[in-house]
Structure formats: C-alpha cells, structure tokens
Amino acid sequence: MNDTHLNEQSPVTETDVECMRMSPPEFDAMVRDTPKELVVDVLEARKDEYGEHLRALEKRRKDVVKKLEELDDRIMQAVRERKSIEEQLQQVQHKRKEQSANVRERSAEHEEHSVHRKVRSVDLTVTVEDVSDEETDMYEADDARRLRKLTQKFVGHYGPITALSSDTTLGLVASGSVDTQVRIWDMHTGSCQHTISGHTDIIRKVQFYDRFLLTASNDTRIRMWDLALLDSVTPQPSGVETTSPPMTPTLFRRVAPQELCCDTTFVGHTDAVTCFQAMGGTMVSGSADATVREWDVASGVVRQTIDVKWATGDKQAGRVDRMASYTQGPVGYKQGPASYTQGQISETRGTDDGDGGSIGAVQFFEYALATGTSDGIVRLWDLRTSQAHRQMHGHTAPITSLQFDERTIVTGSIDTACVLWDLRMGRELHRLKFGNTVGSVQLGQNTARSAHAAQVWVAARDRSIYKYLASSMQQIEYATDFGVVNARLEGGEARVTRVQCVESDVLLSGDDEGVVKMWNI
C-alpha cells in the first residue's frame, strides 16, 4: 500500500480548519487601544468570528468522527475475516490429524511396537510445567486450556459470595456474602483476619479505601470501618472481645467493641444500597430507592441526590435534590436478611443472590458517571448538572455489573448477556451470551489504546471463569473444577458468582458455596 493511499484514508485533522485571524493576546491589546464607543462593535464582531470558527470546527469534527466510524467498520470486518480464516485453518488441521491417526491405527494392526514407542505415538497429551516446583505432570490436551495455578483459597462464608475487593499494598482481600458478614483475609496465608457483623442483610459491595474498608448492604446503610481499629479488637481466651481503650458510650447500653471501629455510617438511602464506588474523597452510591447519591467521604455528608426516574423522564418518581440532608434515618434496616433460597427477583432490590436492582451498578471518574438500571439501560451522566447525556440500549433485563475505562465500557445483566461498548461512539461492539445471569464483569489491562483490543473477565454463575479477547473475538473458558496444577480439587460443583482483577495475571473469584479463590492465570 503506497503513501498516497494512506493519505487518502487518513482522517482530516484540526489543522484543516483555518485559525482565528488574531490570537487572544493580540485581540486584548487591540481592545485596549480601541475607543470606548467602538468597543461594543469590536466585541460583537469578535463573537461572530468565534461563532463561525466553532461551526467550522464542529463540521470538521463530524467529518473526523465519520472517518473514524468507517475505520472501525473496516477493523471489525478484518477481525471477522481473520476469524473465518482461523476456523478454516483449524478444520484443515483437524482433518490432517484424523488422517494421521487413521494411518497409525492401520499400521498398529500389522506391527508390534514397544511400550516406549506407543507412548510417543499418542499426540493427545501435553506436558505442563508447574512454575511452583520442578515436577511436571501429563494432562489431556482437551484439559490444557483449563490449567492454571490456584494460589490461595479463603474459606469461611456460609452463603454465596456477593462482593470482592483487594488491596495489594495491605496484602488483604475483603469478601461479602449473602450470610450478611464481611470477612477480611490475609492475601498470602489465606487466614481470616476479621469478621465484620455490622450489617443485618445481604452484603452488596465492599471496597478498600485508604486505611478503611467500605461496606454496603441491603439494610440501606454504607459503613466505613477503620482497619487499624479492627486490628485492636482481639478475641480473648474467655471469648469476650475487648478493645483498646476499653470503653462504651453509655453505662446502660453495651456497644460491641467492633461497632467502635466504624468510623462513619452513611445514612440517607431508604432502601437497599446495591452498589457504590469511592475515589478521591468522593463516593457515589446507587440504591433500590432509585436514587444515586454523591457523598463527601470525610464528613459523610450527601452532596447531591439524583432521582434516576425523574431525571430520565418519569416525573412521578421524585426530583434532583442537591445538598440533601444526611440526617434522615434509614427505613426498616432491622428487618434481617432476606431469604435467598427461593431465588426470586425483586424489581427494586434485584435477586436474592445479590444481583441487579433499580440501580444495579455505578462507576464514576471525575464528573463522568455511568449507571446500569433495572430497565437494562446504561446511562452516562454529568455530575455537575445531574443530567443524563447518553443512553445505551442493549439489555432486556436488569444490569448487574459495569466497568469502563477511557475507551470501553462493559456491562453484564440478568438477561445472560455481556456487552462490550465503544464509550466514545456509544455503540455496541461485541455481545457474549451465557447460560445464566452474568453477575460480574471486569476489564483487563488494555495497552493498545483501542476499544477493539479490550480484555473482559466474566462470571456467569456456572463452574467457569470466562476471558474474552476483543481483538481476536476469542472466548477462553477456565473451568474452576481444575484447581492447583498437579492436583485436582474435589467436588467442582460450585458456581462462580463474582470475579475481580487484582493484577494483570492475578484474579479473585467467589462462588455460591461461599469460597473465595485467588488464581494466577
């Protein structure tokens, strides 16, 4: 391909738009030298000039976007064509293997081979080296894709895992469960450091934040626990917990020492808190009460409340209330944990296993906010105006999980679909279908600076963890019933409910038997 063709296909740049005749400093100097009676005319002329310039830039931007869309289409066509070639290649290779196997079978009928030669003739066996020791084992080729190193297991919950978080600096893993407990684990030893029983309903979200751990529950509350104070609460041989310094706020009502480790309780939502994210002194939470609240983490004050239904057109739902009072008490959070054995779906709270809800997922970065709601719509918001400026329609049931970066957004839903979107264009790139609810999605590292090079991890309530490579449209299934290399786990009936990326090659998974596992994939 010659340079002329490349230039023809390259999008035009901003340099094609003629610049303003005068730079701002030059114009300011001219205004200072202009007689006062002519300043208004000069400013109006400058305003008109900027209007023309902006129209030209907008026209050029549309041209560039159109060119980029064309390039995206060509990329997707090339990916599909390459995938077709790969399938043809696999078919040809498969036929050759079958022919080779038939030749060996006919040859075996007439000749006797030594045991050594028979072993060498079996080409369905591969050798996998366990990096943790010098031994090697032999596995069937069909199982080769399922091999990975299970580095740690965290056992203690007695209900399905609903939330995961990790902090490599502290060396800790946090997990939440349907059993209403939050457990903090040592990442290296697998031992349980703390069990937090400060909620009365299903745990929906946990997140390490600085020296704190944030937890949210269906009991309408978000609580922030001081990890240093938790370390000071230690069980005594008598079974009675003490704290340093030993004190209670009142002589008439004993407060559990662990409660003194709660730095802040964020009160304001009137129904289950289904999701949240904290970053840079700000926290954004979503609830079954159909509101998104922005909080100041340090003070626990609500900065603004966005009623999602009202802001998107349902005027009966409520209103946007900035700087809302944070003194309003929660409603009914002492009702106790919901029954999660029936597997029913609530339109507002989601499933009894902690998936979905009126607002099933949120993520924000600076003033950009993304929400996934029970109507299956992904909405992008501006926190400065409390307005949704884009909607992406691709799901037919409540959204359970979402994550975005500067190029891509991935969503999972109860409709068993995982959708990868181009965040810039707001259009669907890839759609993956599974057999069960997609309860958790995570974006892997993407160094190619392209939405078409995204890596996605998916937990879909079966016995596997899925990895999708957008660049090759390849879906890899890691079956979790094959655990440590050199040793298979017993059972293998647990279904993966949550997945979370720790590092580029380290992954956490939680299952419906209450076990958290750390993988080196």
Write up this protein.
With 521 residues, the chain is an alpha+beta fold. The strands form ten sheets. The protein has a five-stranded antiparallel sheet. Strands 3-35-34-33 form a four-stranded antiparallel sheet, with no helix packed on it.
Question: How much of the residues is beta strand, in percent?
Answer: 35-45%
- Determine the number of helices (DSSP H or I, runs of at least 4 residues): 6
What is the molecular shape? flat
Query: Using DSSP, what is the number of strands?
Result: 35
Oligomer: single chain
Strand order of the largest sheet: 14-15-16-17-18
Helical content (DSSP H or I, runs of 4+): 10-25%
Overall residue-averaged pLDDT value: 78
Main attributes?
single chain, 521 residues, alpha+beta, five-stranded antiparallel β-sheet, four-stranded antiparallel β-sheet, 21% helix
Q: In a few lines, what is going on in this structure?
A:
This protein has 521 residues and is an alpha+beta fold. The protein contains 6 helices and 35 strands. The chain starts with a helix and ends with a strand.
